[in-house]
Amino acid sequence: MKREERSPWCFGCGTQNPIGLKLDCREENDKFIAAFTPGPEHQGYGDVVHGGIISTLLDEIMTGYPFFKGLGPRTARLEVQFRHPVFVGQPVTVTGWITGRNGKLMELEGKVTFADGTVAAEGKSTVVLVGDKPLKVPAADSSRP
Predict the structure, then answer these.
(1) Residue 136 in domain
(2) Which of 2, 3, 27, 22 is nearest to 12 (CA)?
(3) DSSP code of 62?
(4) To which H or E segment does residue 52 belong?
(5) CB 54, CB 87: distance < 8 Å
(6) Is 46 part of any domain?
(7) Of 47, 55, 125, 144, whose CA is between 20 and 30 Å from 30?
(8) DSSP 3-state assignment of 106?
(9) What is the value of pTM for the model shown?
(10) What GO biological process, any one, is recorded here (predicted)?
């Protein structure tokens, strides 16, 4: 079962969330990767993408990776360093990877990059794993808007 099918209303990857980011993430060479092109609804001011959206992209790609692997991650800590502004309509690639694990704690890093490889933002995350078994996510509620 694909990740988005287990969580169709996820703000980051859910396909049924009308205001979500609808990230289509894939695993490649021990990294989790998604492409994203922000629209005008993602801006803060002056065509610059809101920092909360950039933070959400990083949280989604880092926490989403262990979720994709069938674990039950919960973000415990998220650090974001903004390097360059991302503008509306400017495609970016979001990449996350696992850097370590100590029991129920997993450390991850991520980055948002432009097509030329320039890093727009970097993140570090600690997630708490609530189980080593696949998550049991309730079926989608068809009555939701």
Answers:
(1) no
(2) 22
(3) H
(4) helix 51-68
(5) no
(6) yes
(7) 55
(8) strand
(9) 0.86
(10) fatty acid metabolic process
Q: Which residue from 31, 96, 101, 105 is spatially nearest to 62, judged by alpha carbons?
A: 96
- What range does the domain containing 87 cover? 25-129
**How is the chain split among helix, strand and coil, in percent rounded to 5?**
15, 40, 45
Output the domain CATH number for residue 44: 3.10.129.10
In a domain, 138, yes or no: no
Q: Give the C-alpha distances (Å, rounded to integers) separating 35 from 13, 98, 112.
A: 11, 19, 9
Tokens of 62: 């880092």
- Are the C-beta atoms of 70 and 77 separated by less than 8 Å? no
- pLDDT in the model for residue 131: 65
Walk along the chain (145 residues) and give the pLDDT tens digit of each residue: 354 456 888 888 888 899 989 999 999 999 999 999 999 999 999 999 999 999 999 999 999 999 988 889 999 999 999 999 999 999 999 999 999 999 999 999 999 999 999 999 999 999 999 965 544 444 444 444 4
The CA-CA-CA angle for residues 20, 62, 102, to 5°, reads 145
Is residue 14 assigned to a domain? no
The number of distinct structural domains making up the chain is: 1
**Tokens 């993408």 belong to residue:** 49
